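REQUEST FORM: STRUCTURE PREDICTION
Request ID: SP-0412
Submitted by: Lab K.M.
Chain count: 1
Length (residues): 295
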Amino acid sequence: MNITAAAAGDWTLGDVTVHRMGFGAMRITPNPDRSVAIKVLRRAVELGVNHIDTAAFYRSPGGTLGVGEGEVRYANELIREALAPYPDDLVITTKVGPGENPERGFHHAATAAELRAQVETNLRQLAVDNLDVVNLRIMKKPGADSIAERFGALADLRDAGLIRRLGISNVRSDHLDEALAIAPVTCVQNSYAIDLRGEEDELIRQCAERGIAYVPFFAIAGAQRETGADADHSAAVEKLAAQHGASPQQIRLAWTLHQGPNVLAIPGTGNPSHLEENLAAGAIQLTPTDLATLA
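STATUS: Completed
RESULT:
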């Protein structure tokens, strides 16, 4: 019997409930055979995934992964091709801030007009009238770097009906306080993994107290970030994997989900077999002793 995304349990994204094991779309674009991405996306939904993370700037060739060949493929357009009309319970989360255009290349939106243009690009690519969740992704800088103006611009777009829910990404706890003073925050999306923790544990706790989902990226890749996971896992991860009859990647995902009831996982892959392996990690139960070995 297949293990589905429901094995990881549930949490809320604002006013909707999703399975804590979701799917990240960044890695579905490299294969020039579009049918592979279509197969992965449809299989994910068949296996209960009801939360997909994406962005208008996820594309190949090039893009954030710097790989791929052939005609340009956008993650949002692959999602639309595979899943539209979308299931009623499917939540698609996208992000704005980073963007691309022919004149400026890759850049970060700084004005309300630029953010609206990025929102409209997502609407067009996904073929929807409004976006389920939009994260404001910032380029975090040392010291005071207010997000109020940019988050306020997205709150205006929410009020205009183009966005249903808002989140923030690559942020600190002071950014969260700043955003909450403007509009409800559905989720916080930061980089976080066993070997990429920073000061995130406290932010996870703060989000949990406020009923906010914490959605880490790079849970499997960790310090390897966009380059992806490699075979160089710590001895503790390797040992636990052997004890649980699991892969090191599954242990990393299971550890992620054990960091709090509000922590979601969005592992991404363009490989159908990896998809099912990732989802199965949601059923792995780590003991307090297991977790202590990974602290």
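NOTES: The first strand starts at residue 10 and ends at 13.
Reviewed by: T.R.
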